[in-house]
Amino acid sequence: MHDNRIGVVVATALSVTIVVGAGLLTLPGLSFSLAGKEGYVPWLIVAVLMLPLLYVFSYFAAHNPSAGGVTGYIRSSLGQRFASMAEMIVLGTFTLGIPAISFIGAEYLKQAVPGIAVVPGAFFIMCLAYGAGVIGLRISGAIQTAIAACIILGLSAVAVVYLFEVDWQSVPSGIPSNGIPYKGIASAIPIVLFAFTGWEMTAFLAEDMKNPKRDMPRSIWISFAIVVAVYIFIAWTVAYFGENTASWKLTPFIELAHLSFGEYGGVLVGVLAAFISIANVVAAFMSASRAIYSAGRDGFLPNFIGRTNADHKPLVAMTVTWLLFSMIIFITYELGVGEKMLLQLAGQNFFVLYLLCSFGFVRVNYRNPHRLIVGVVAIISVLMMLLLFNMYGVIYCSCLAGVGLLLSRKVPDRGKVTGQEK
């Protein structure tokens, strides 16, 4: 694919909108409910845990950028069998995760625009994502950049205005720690963890970038700095000023917005949440369509899916992606499968991809002491995260990996394992 149009600014915006989900509006409250005034500490801990993984992704992005994303990283470092397993895990993750996000977006859209039912709303959001892909990343990327700026500024503004309105002399006592704050902090880490997934998805956009070897790593680190700053600022505000009430624990952003903007606060949160969810789906759809395009080009899916049109856009892959996600929206709704179950099944797969990438990083850098240490730390961090898995997620991921292993026999070995870097 030759349509490499976006630069580091758009790539950063896409990363931000992929990572920042509507869950940010509730997660600080859940963290506060467990850790009390130390509710921001889990966010700091997870941010530190993510550093070695971000280094692994930025390394591979600089040395092996392609529409294959993390699958390409794994192929170049661990070989085709592991790449096929990863490819199937990626497809299975996108197939459930992105429709689930569209359901969440539809719920918020319903609050902002009364009268819209959930399924039509989710389908509408998916059509927006497809339309953004059709018009191209140069235009849709500029729109996404503006939306990312509005999201970050809007989220920050709610907290900043609150700090000016609140009475600092009468800070509430918050939630007592009962002398064991570390237990609450440890309990909050699994909840916060999922707010830091998403950077692995931007890897699939490498071939749409002007200079992916330079701009992809930059966009990863810049977006990480932006996201972490916003996360910790909001988490600290909620933890420091939150009260021991159900509303502060479950809908803290509405509490912040009501004091900051009065009766319009709830409307503002609804609009912000809808924007976050829609931007999240659009950016994730772009990544998913590139992953499906790459799977077709590599022979993992039918070859026609890996072709581009006259404008060098993967239109067939985008259409297949849209049809697949739309079908999942209607099927899961008819079966009564909620977005919570979809996210539980899909969300954990990211950590398996993290683990494979970390092992691959160690394999190609085992003679470089500094990188070897980073790789080992990354593996340890991911293994700690894997302890959070539930059994349903393990079964789903194992089935996907098994199918990928079977299909690997029919996939030509297009990439050799690279040697270590000195």
Summarize the structure in short.
73% of the residues lie in helices and 0% in strands. The protein starts with 7 loop residues before the first helix and ends in a 15-residue tail after the last helix.
How would you describe the overall organization of this protein?
The protein has helices at 8-19, 27-35, 41-63, 69-78, 80-112, 118-135, 137-165, 181-193, 199-202, 212-241, 246-250, 252-261, 265-297, 315-335, 339-347, 349-364, 369-386, 391-407. It is built from 18 helices and no strands. 73% of the residues lie in helices and 0% in strands. It is mostly helical and 422 residues long. Helix 6 packs across helix 13 (265-297) and helix 7 packs parallel to helix 10. The radius of gyration is 21 Å and the shape is globular. The model has no long low-confidence stretch (mean pLDDT 84).
In total, how many beta strands?
A: 0
| SSE string | HHHHHHHHHHHHHHHHHH
* Count of helical stretches: 18
Structural class: mainly alpha
CATH-defined topology:
Amino acid/polyamine transporter I
**How many independent structural domains?**
1
Low-confidence stretches: none
Alpha-carbon distance between the termini? 31 Å
CATH level 4 superfamily? Amino acid/polyamine transporter I
Specify the CATH architecture.
Up-down Bundle
Strand content: under 5%
Shape: globular
Mean pLDDT: 84
